[in-house]
Design brief:
The protein is an alpha+beta fold. Helices cover 29% and strands 26% of the residues. The protein has helices at residues 22-33, 64-71, 86-95, 102-108, 111-120, 134-144, 168-172, 232-249, 292-295, 300-309, 342-345, 377-389, and strands spanning 14-18, 37-42, 55-58, 76-79, 128-131, 148-152, 162-165, 182-186, 192-200, 206-208, 212-217, 220-226, 253-262, 275-282, 322-329, 351-355, 366-374. It binds adenosine-5'-diphosphate (ADP) and magnesium ion. Belongs to the PurK/PurT family. It is an enzyme of class 6 (ligase).
Length: 392
């Protein structure tokens, strides 16, 4: 389809955001502060992002009339989640430059294509194989070994659609009819998980945030800490891999690269031991980057605005030595529909509370987060966890 020529979009211009969740909300807040107008395209004005945006077009994401109404108001368009129909992005591109591109999205929507693309570019990924049914799982297990993790190729998030498979007997329990395409991955006995968020402009400039260290509970991000407790060598490798992935996928905007770090000798890997493998990538702001709002000179959301508008990229360095972020899941909300006692959270010094304006708390649903910036990483982690305890 014909595309609009890219040009720099300066403050005063209008940015379109496809998706109405918390990532879109925090993007809109950053863009507003910078003097942009943000129009959100999502299904309901009650979602987190439209509550803080200048305008909103509601409709199904594949409703061409709604897409046109939205896109025709925008100078540049971006998105906050990857499961957007390719036709919608193609339609957006007729009206305004749209980042990331339909190609990047097609790759990021498909775990198999994503892993294959990264691997072909010489980037390290965990051993994987395509699976469609019990028979092909048996073949795949010969390649990747047991235990393995079985993931749906499309539309999984926060561990949804994942099974840990220890044996063929486990595999027999899987509801194979529920999905036609799976990927089997070797279970990586990692020492820690890290992520690197890289921003890339359309003329190929890149900038990375500090490496974040991530603790997951039940496959959902629980706490992010910075600096990551890995040495200089692994840090360099993680950054190289993240930039390599952004270039390989030709991302414009943000790319978060989640990685496993394994085989560290004793934390002092100056001997070159230790391995970094890509787990998955997301071409958008990421939960592990929320601490950049208070913790870095430029937040991931401001960097996203800068990248898609063609502005110079900002300083990503930490404002202090360390920072930590703890997610607030719906599990913390009382069953009677009331709210946690937020006043007690404000009692914990140095902790910032973010709430996403979601009407309904559900188990495992991301409702908000807490951030603490500190001279010392352990203090930052203790503070956010203490503040979270106050929510109970
Ligand atoms: P999602 O799209 O749901 O975030 P991920 O692939 O990132 O899916 O998996 C969520 C979490 O599950 C990871 O952060 C990690 O803790 C765990 N996990 C996923 N794949 C593996 C693996 N191959 N080996 C070990 N742990 C894994
Ligand atoms: Mg993940």
């Amino acid at each position: 389809s014909p595309q609009v020529a890219p040009r720099m979009v300066l403050p005063g211009g209008t940015i379109g955001m496809v998706g109405g969740g918390q990532l879109g909300r925090m993007f809109a807040m950053a863009a507003s502060r910078m003097g942009y107008r943000v129009i959100v395209f999502c299904e309901s004005i009650d979602e987190p992002a439209p509550q803080v945006a200048h305008g909103c077009v509601t409709g199904k994401l594949d409703d061409k009339k709604a897409v046109d109404q939205f896109a025709s108001q925008c100078d540049v368009i971006t998105l906050e989640f990857e499961n957007i129909p390719a036709e919608t992005i193609a339609e957006c591109q007729r009206f305004a430059p749209t980042y990331p591109s339909a190609d990047v999205l097609a790759t990021a929507q498909d775990r198999l294509l994503e892993k294959t693309t990264l691997q072909k570019s010489g980037l390290p990924v965990a051993p994987f194989a395509e699976v469609t049914d019990l028979d092909s799982l048996e073949t795949a297990s010969a390649k990747v070994g047991f235990p393995l993790i079985l993931k749906t190729v499309r539309s999984g998030y926060d561990g949804k659609g994942q099974h840990r498979i220890g044996s063929i007997d486990d595999a027999k329990q899987v509801d194979w009819a529920s999905c036609s395409q799976w990927v089997a991955e070797k279970l990586i006995p990692f020492d820690r998980e890290v992520s690197v968020i890289v921003a890339r402009t359309r003329d190929g400039r890149t900038s990375t945030f500090p490496v974040f260290e991530n603790d997951h509970v039940n496959h959902i991000l629980d706490v992010t800490m910075v600096p990551a407790s890995i040495g200089d060598d692994l840090t360099r490798r993680a950054n190289q891999i993240a930039i390599g992935a952004a270039v390989a996928l030709d991302v414009v905007g943000l790319l978060c690269v989640e990685m496993f770090v394994c085989g560290e000798s004793d934390g002092s890997e100056s001997d070159g031991s230790g391995e970094v493998l890509i787990n998955e990538v997301a071409p958008r702001p990421h939960n592990s980057g929320h601490l950049t709002i208070e913790g870095c000179h430029t937040s991931q959301f401001e960097q996203h605005v800068r990248a898609v508008c063609g502005l110079p990229l900002g300083d990503t360095s930490l404002v202090s030595n360390a920072a930590a972020m703890a997610n607030l899941l719906g599990d913390l909300w009382p069953a009677d529909g009331s709210s946690p006692p937020w006043n007690r959270v404000y009692d914990v010094p140095g902790v910032s509370l973010h709430l996403y304006g979601k009407q309904q708390a559900k188990r495992g649903r991301k409702m908000g987060h807490l951030t603490c910036v500190s001279q010392d990483r352990d203090t930052a982690v203790v503070q956010v966890k203490q503040a979270r305890e106050q929510c109970k």
